[in-house]
Amino acid sequence: MDNVRRFFYGPSPEEQKRKCNALLRSNTRKLDRDLANLKALESKTKGYILAASKRAQKNPSQATQAQQETRLFARELVRVRKQSQRLATSKATLASVGMQVNEAFAVRKIEGSIKASTSVMKDVNSLVKLPELTGTMRELSQELMKAGIIEEMVSDTLDNQDILEDEDEAAETEVDKVLGEVLKDKVQTPQVPSVPMQAPTAAETEEEEMDSEEMLAQMRGRLEALKS
C-alpha cells in the first residue's frame, strides 16, 4: 500500500524529512573527516618547519637552503589553516541548514503547508559551491525542492573563485606570523661561523631541493585530495 501511495503521491513529509536529515548527517561526517585530516597535515607541516630550521642551525653551510624550506612549508601551513577555517565555517552553515529544515517540516506538520525559505536556499547554494560537498549537496537541494523548502535548483555554475583560489603566494606577513608562532622558543638565532664553511656541492644542493619539492608535492596532494 505504501508503495502504491508513494507512486501516485510521492514520498510522505516524514520520509522527505528522514532523507534530508540523512544527507545532512552524511555531509557533516565528510566535513569531520576532512577537518581531522587537515589537523594531522597541519601537525606534520609544523614538524617539517622545525626540522628545516634545526638543520639550518646544525649545518651553517645549508642555512640558506633550509631557511627557504621553512618559508615554503610555512606557506603550506597557511593554506592548510585557511582550508580548515573554510570547512569549519561550512560545517556551521550546514548545522544551520539542518535546524531550518527541521523547523520547516515541523511547521508543515502543524499548518499543513510549507513556505519556501530564501535563507535555506542561500546557505545550500554556498555549500554546493564547496568542492568537498558538491555532489551530496546537489542531491539535498533536489530533496528540498521536492519538499517545497526551496523554490529552485541552486546554480550548477561553481562561481567559487574565493573557494578554489590558489593560495601558493600567501602574504609574507602571514608567513612571518606562522614562523614566529612555530619557531618560538624552539631554535636559537643562527650563529655566524667564525671560520669559512665549505660550500655545498651542486649535487648536494640539487638533492636537498628535490627532497623539499617532493615533500611539498605530497602535502599539496593531500590538500587537493580533501577538495576532490
TrEMBL record:
Protein name from the UniProt record: Vacuolar protein-sorting-associated protein 24
What phylogenetic lineage does the species belong to? Eukaryota, Fungi, Dikarya, Ascomycota, Pezizomycotina
Please tell me the species this chain comes from: Acrodontium crateriforme
Compositionally biased residues, Acidic residues:
204-214
Q: Which residues form a coiled coil?
A: none
Its BP terms in the Gene Ontology are:
vacuolar transport
* Record-annotated membrane-spanning stretches: none
Q: Where is this region: Disordered?
A: 189-215
Per its UniProt record, what Gene3D superfamilies does this chain match? 6.10.140.1230
Q: Which domain of life is it from?
A: Eukaryota
Q: Known Pfam families for this protein?
A: Snf7 (PF03357)
Record InterPro entries: Snf7_fam
